[in-house]
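2024-03-11 09:14:02 INFO worker-7 job=invfold-0412 stage=load source=structure_tokens
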């Protein structure tokens, strides 16, 4: 039985991560994660209310050797036992990406092993296959993170077709920015998630934009379900900047924008109502797209998929509509290298490798 060991490195934003995974057999996916190490920079960036790119790249430089060494140790793998090195090529912060890409190139070159470039969002999508190797296909996958909110159609494993995306803010970005308006620490998503548990999600009716027109400035979609004209294409898009403004206006009307004079109960109501508006917008669009594409399952991946209310409502709605909903474990929801290892193994199997002239790409397209 063939066996492939891969080391994966992820440094696209503010987490330095490395993982070792093994693929056993060749007929069906049989990936096993042997180790997955993450050094988070959250404490460094919290002071500034968001990720400071220059600080992030410098911290990646400090952490990368230790993180990779630990991933090797925890998996009891020697460098010589690696068959390939995978790395996130983009999208992300270019200074951060460069640290991982340079490290991976040096290691692959020194070991004379193939270098496998991975798209960060493909990593998030493949995190679903890591948890559910038999994910029913075709599937629709919602990738919802700090930088992206996009819907992909997967006719088969390894093929990802963009069918919807946010026109402005990503959902995670909206969580982070609304948290800032409310005087809550970075990253806002987990904090709003926690505070919302004490609040009434029906207390405030925040509006959610419902896009009904195609984006005239965007390239036409690459794939449409049968019977859907490109005029309808925009209906699978999202928009969150208006919701963020609605929260800002609510605070302003309430007390001239001063979040300090809000009681804990009201804060919890604002958080819960905002969270419910985001979750409804995400799920309405994701289920509608799944129906249009006759998908056999709906996957939800990326940092915001860690949201407890999103997980709960997605599973409930999936049961009601008879559509299996799959989510990664919490460890695999936010940025990690195990998902990059999974994506790397699939690409390696497809024969995709890069030369040592590989460069980091901040806006890498999928
Ligand atoms: O995937 P990720 O770790 O990094 C990117 O690729 O962007 O996602 C980070 C985002 C942040 O905006 C963070 O606030 C959000 O995911 N997030 C959450 C939760 N945990 C992380 N949003 C809502 N609820 C959560 N529990
Ligand atoms: Zn991510």
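2024-03-11 09:14:09 INFO worker-7 stage=emit residues=366
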């Amino acid at each position: 039985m063939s066996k492939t060991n891969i080391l994966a490195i992820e440094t696209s934003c503010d987490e330095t991560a490395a993982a070792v995974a093994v693929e056993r057999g060749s007929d069906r996916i049989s990936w096993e994660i042997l180790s997955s190490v993450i050094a988070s920079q959250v404490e460094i960036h919290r002071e500034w209310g968001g990720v400071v790119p220059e600080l992030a790249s410098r911290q990646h430089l400090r952490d990368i050797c230790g993180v990779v060494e630990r991933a090797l140790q925890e998996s009891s793998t020697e460098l010589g036992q690696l068959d390939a090195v995978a790395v996130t090529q983009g999208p992300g912060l270019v200074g951060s990406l460069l640290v991982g890409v340079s490290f991976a190139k040096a290691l692959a070159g020194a070991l004379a092993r193939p270098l496998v470039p991975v798209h960060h969002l493909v990593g998030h999508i493949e995190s679903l296959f890591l948890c559910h190797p038999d994910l029913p296909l075709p599937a629709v996958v919602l990738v919802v993170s700090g930088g992206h909110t996009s819907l992909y159609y997967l006719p088969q494993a390894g093929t990802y077709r963009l069918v919807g995306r946010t026109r402005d803010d990503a959902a995670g970005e909206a969580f982070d920015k609304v948290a800032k308006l409310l005087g809550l620490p970075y990253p806002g998503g987990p904090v709003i998630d926690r505070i919302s548990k004490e609040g009434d999600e029906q207390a405030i009716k925040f509006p959610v934009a419902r896009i009904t027109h195609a984006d005239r400035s965007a390239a036409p979609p690459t794939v449409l379900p049968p019977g859907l004209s490109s005029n309808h294409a925009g209906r699978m898009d999202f928009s969150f900047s208006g919701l963020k403004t609605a929260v800002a206006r609510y605070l302003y009307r309430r007390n001239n924008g001063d979040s300090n004079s809000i009681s804990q109960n009201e804060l919890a109501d604002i958080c819960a109502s905002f969270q419910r508006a985001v979750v409804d917008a995400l799920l309405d669009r994701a289920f509608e797209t799944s129906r249009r594409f006759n998908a056999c399952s709906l996957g939800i991946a990326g940092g915001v998929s860690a949201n407890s209310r999103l997980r709960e409502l997605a599973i409930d709605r999936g049961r009601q509509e008879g559509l299996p909903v799959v989510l990664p474990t919490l460890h695999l929801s936010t940025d990690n290298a195990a998902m990059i290892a999974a994506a790397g193994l699939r690409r390696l199997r497809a024969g995709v490798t890069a030369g040592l002239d590989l460069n980091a790409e901040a806006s890498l397209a999928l």
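2024-03-11 09:14:09 INFO worker-7 stage=report msg="The chain has a mean pLDDT of 92."
2024-03-11 09:14:10 INFO worker-7 job finished
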